[in-house]
UniProtKB/TrEMBL annotation:
Keyword Hydrolase: yes
Taxonomic lineage of the native organism: Eukaryota, Metazoa, Ecdysozoa, Nematoda, Chromadorea
Any one GO biological process: carbohydrate metabolic process
Name the UniProt record assigns to this protein: GH18 domain-containing protein
Family of the protein in this entry: Belongs to the glycosyl hydrolase 18 family.
Residue stretches making up the GH18 domain: 22-368
Length: 369
């Protein structure tokens, strides 16, 4: 009885006394899983995503054992922390948080897995509490209950991190800062996927991860940028020393309506999906003799390219990720997060060594000046 009363107090003292340090967490998507392409010394944390989820009855689904075994081997190559991202249909998370018993079981099962495997913690990727089909209003507070229960089970021996939505509208609906501050080791803002093409509602080109608003953006559009997301979370009360700023290495391609009308927000006839840096870096395009015009947008701190073939691409380059990492550093956040390893030029095809974007982010974040 006595110990169960003092536990929370002791526990919060321990958490508050923890020094944050500089974080560079890097996601690794499970598709075409091959750990030998990962350079574990690039990142402080590597997060495996796509192999674990919450099932339809709210239970923890662990990765296949051969995946876990390979993933854990990264620890032999560098002193990196390894995290397992838990994803899943939002309605399944709602099921999970609807019952105290289910949350307890989830905490037990995930902890057993972490202990058994040697993985350092979990990263909760619920997209998004309250916001999605099948969601409930109570998700917002019950998410806090889930984090509290996980923390009570894990103590300080395993990490708990949370991925939160970029768009400020979702942020205010989905989360409360108090439980994020209290129970999460850090909180990663997914500051990307701001522009969603829709043939009827939004048939235009746009930036995947604009740093600041463009001068002519109004209303909700003026908030669809990384700077606006961060200030929303800070105004909600999220501590800067818990906040990790998301930077993508991928971008998106679109088909313009007219090749000569190619500014951001120009009419598009379709979306061509995600692109990696090595698909669009200048060196590779030159090698393939593809003639694109390279542009830079100052407020967005983002490049884009367009061509006679009506292709329009928003992506990241060393300059854009430098601006974004500098911003995170100036804001005195806990660090940066990258999505993901494989969409950087991991093979060094862009003629500047392997992982040029992540290496750049790392040098900006950890540069002592
Ligand atoms: C983090 O920031 C909060 C709010 O500014 C502060 O109360 C807390 O002590 C800080 N924690 C650490 C470890 O610096
Ligand atoms: C994994 O990546 C390494 C390094 O690029 C490569 O040599 C190897 O063939 C890959 N393995 C598989 C199964 O693709
Ligand atoms: C793990 O095992 C499954 C089933 O045997 C196999 O299909 C899969 O390719 C394996 N994955 C890895 C990363 O070895
Ligand atoms: C290659 O890297 C250097 C150093 O980070 C940078 O200054 C240069 O702009 C990069 N070149 C290309 C083509 O990305």
């Amino acid at each position: 009885m006595f110990s169960s009363l003092v536990f929370p107090v002791l526990f919060f003292l321990t958490m508050a006394g923890r020094t944050t340090g500089q974080i560079l967490s890097c996601f690794y998507e499970i598709e075409n899983f091959n750990v030998s392409i990962i350079e574990p010394s690039l990142c402080t944390h590597i997060i495996l995503i796509g192999s674990s989820n919450v099932d339809n009855i709210g239970h923890f689904q662990e990765p296949p054992s051969n995946v876990t075994e390979e993933f854990v081997k990264l620890k032999n190559r560098a002193p990196v922390k390894l995290l397992l991202a838990v994803t899943g249909n939002s309605a399944h998370f709602t099921t999970l948080v609807s019952s105290e018993a289910t949350m307890q079981q989830f905490a037990d099962e995930s902890l057993a897995y972490l202990d058994r495997s040697g993985i350092d913690g979990i990263d909760i990727d619920w997209e998004f509490p309250v916001w999605s089909w099948g969601a409930k209003k109570s998700d917002r507070t019950r998410f806090g209950d889930l984090l509290r229960i996980l923390r009570q089970k894990y103590g300080t021996k395993k990490l708990i991190t949370v991925d939160v939505a970029g768009p400020p509208t979702i942020a205010k609906y989905s989360y409360q800062a108090d439980y994020l501050n209290k129970y999460a080791d850090f909180v990663q803002i997914m500051s990307y996927d701001y522009h969603v093409y829709d043939p009827i509602l939004n048939p235009v080109v746009g930036f995947n991860s604009p740093l600041r608003r463009l001068p002519y953006e109004r209303g909700i559009l003026a908030k669809m940028n990384s700077d606006s997301s961060l200030s929303t979370y800070i105004s909600m009360g999220l501590w800067k020393n818990k906040t990790v700023f998301g930077i993508p290495t991928y971008g998106y391609a679109y088909t313009l309506f007219n090749a000569f009308i190619n500014e951001p927000y120009s009419l598009a006839t379709g979306s061509k999906g995600a692109v990696t840096y090595s698909m669009v870096c200048p060196a590779m395009l030159k090698k393939k003799n593809i003639d694109y015009k390279f542009e830079w947008d100052y407020p967005a701190s983002s490049p884009y390219i367009h061509g006679r073939d009506r292709t329009w691409i928003s992506y990241e380059d060393p300059r854009s990720v430098t601006e974004k990492a500098k911003y995170a550093k100036e804001q005195q956040l806990a660090g940066g997060m990258v999505f993901d390893l494989k969409s950087d030029d991991y093979l060094g095809l862009c003629a500047n060594g392997s992982y040029p974007l992540i290496r750049t982010i790392k040098s900006v974040l950890f540069d002592k000046n």
